[in-house]
Design goal:
alpha/beta, 21% strand, two-stranded parallel sheet, globular
């Protein structure tokens, strides 16, 4: 078990029921389990990604897709002396993390499904994405996954097998690269450091302007 899930997870009554149903349906395809605010967080084997969606919808009763997305666990690249001025809270990690329910790859898929009939029934699913950067599409199970998967493909470069039409949502067709990858080059960041890493210019009419006038 990863450090993030070393302590025994605590699920709500509904969460425990959902997890029991998934255990019975998916068995060894469940790689790791964790809890977040009482809801089950379940990491499944990549080849069981679509099967997990079917189980959530037909066995657990989660008929509503909240989202499908991805995460890049690569640490944010340090440019020049930026690291010394990191004022984010908490500070950005310098080593790769894996999050709740663990992981073994840089990229992971994340999804959240809920029930519109049974209050407080929610399941969060995740799976590792290998270097092939491909996964099974959920569109046949949750039609609303269409746009979510297109966005994930566009922003992270993960292709979804079985998707009816992967095409850009926000960017022009000729755009190269995937903007939400941590190693995507941000020209503006290379030209000018983030605010807070350098002295901030004073407001017009402030003390600095008065001193300069004297």
């Amino acid at each position: 078990m990863s450090e993030a899930t070393a302590e025994a997870p605590t699920w709500s009554e509904t969460g425990s029921d959902s997890l029991a149903r998934l255990d019975a349906e998916l068995g060894d395809a469940i790689v790791e389990r964790a809890a977040m605010a009482g809801d089950p967080v379940v990491r499944v084997a990549p080849d069981a990604w679509r099967r997990a969606a079917i189980a959530c919808k037909e066995v657990v009763g989660c008929d509503y897709l909240s989202f499908v997305s991805a995460v890049d666990w690569m640490p944010a690249p340090v440019i020049g002396d930026e690291g010394a001025g990191d004022t984010s809270t908490p500070a950005q990690p310098r080593e790769q993390t894996v999050g709740v329910a663990g992981g073994s790859t840089r990229f992971q898929l994340l999804a959240c499904v809920e029930s519109t009939r049974s209050p407080f029934r929610r399941v969060i699913l995740k799976c590792d994405v290998d270097d092939a950067m491909r996964a099974e599409s959920w569109v046949a199970v949750y039609p609303g996954a269409d746009w979510h998967e297109r966005e994930t493909w566009e922003m992270f470069g993960i292709a979804f097998d079985g998707h009816p039409s992967l095409r850009h949502l926000y960017l022009p067709a000729e755009f190269e690269g995937n903007p939400l990858r941590k190693d995507f080059p941000l020209l503006a960041r290379e030209v000018k450091p983030w605010p807070g890493l350098v002295d901030v210019e004073g407001m017009p009419g402030g003390a600095d302007d008065e001193e300069a006038a004297e």
